[in-house]
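Person: Show me a sequence?

Helper:
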Amino acid sequence: MKRTTPGSQASLRESNGRRVLEALRLFGSLTQAEIARRTGLSPATVSNIVGQLREAGTVEVSPTSAGGRRAVSVAISQRAGLVLGLDFGHSHLRVALGDLSHQVIAEDKINIDVDHRAEEGMVAAARLVDGVLARAGVDRAEVIGVGMGLPGPIDATSGAVGSSAILPGWVGVPAAAAMAERLGLPVRVDNDANLGALAELTWGAGRGVSDLAYIKAATGIGGALVIDGRLHQGRSGTAGEIGHTTLDETGPVCRCGNRGCLETFVGAPVLLRLLRASYGPELTVPEMLASAARGDIGCQRVIADAGRAIGVAVANLCNLLNPGRVVVGGELAAAGDVLLDPLREVVGRFAIPAAVPEIVGGILGERAEVLGALALVLRETDAVL
């Protein structure tokens, strides 16, 4: 059957344009040479498409250097829309505003009570969003989506927060729908570990890796899986919950209802309980980490033991899924090699040799989850396409 030339050319141009925009949406600012490599299009085709998109106001170009040579950097125009990220932590709330070129425009943070009710949290988040938008001089109508992170499992079907969440006031709440109604904007919700993985994949220690495991070591122990460049959430959204790997079936009862979960041995509150008899009842995680950095043997021992326990669970994960890299983030990751070296040692001992991955610390620190909330929207929205 003979195709008409105009129709096929128009279809090809549209398809190629979408490929260029998709690359910019996923990776932020890119040179034209980088766009060509990521899309498989010829440099001449990319140059023509970028010119058309620039005339339409969809992208912006600026001079840059690549490998010592002058080049052109291309990014989706801020006029295409903005995104918001919300991160509800164990005792904090952070908000960030970004554009579709992966640039963070403004952000803010407040401390909140760990036992706050969901309604109180949403009121505080709406107030913080208003403040960030006002300081950035941005109208709410420019925002095309909101990403939101919570420390607990999110049911993929109902959107409700699971019973093992660290924030008890959110359990059973349909978080996305409730926050969308409060803000008057579309909201996507995921757990904090998944967002940490997206952040490190987009901006941090996971860049360039297609198969990645992310471990969040903090108040709880969370995990996330990236397979073939995409977040893998499983049937009900709980894939990667490494903190509930059973280490001792006769061990302490976990908040999930099982016994001997990894989290009952290495969560930050557990480590503090081990130390407070000797270091005082007011010891905090930052103080423990600072003491370990100064060479305190007791704090280093507790953190190293935590690394070994996490290593057992990570070794099993590596044998099953064979990720190319494991990124360790969360508050405890600030201990650096005090935590990571014992973790690497145990993985090297218990994972089969071919499954031993590169194990590195995350580089985004406490901003990982809110940046991941931005990435959640940036990677999912089709608005710019």
User: Anything to note?
Assistant: Residues 297-321 form the longest helix (25 residues). The domain at 79-197+368-380 is CATH 3.30.420.40 (Nucleotidyltransferase; domain 5).
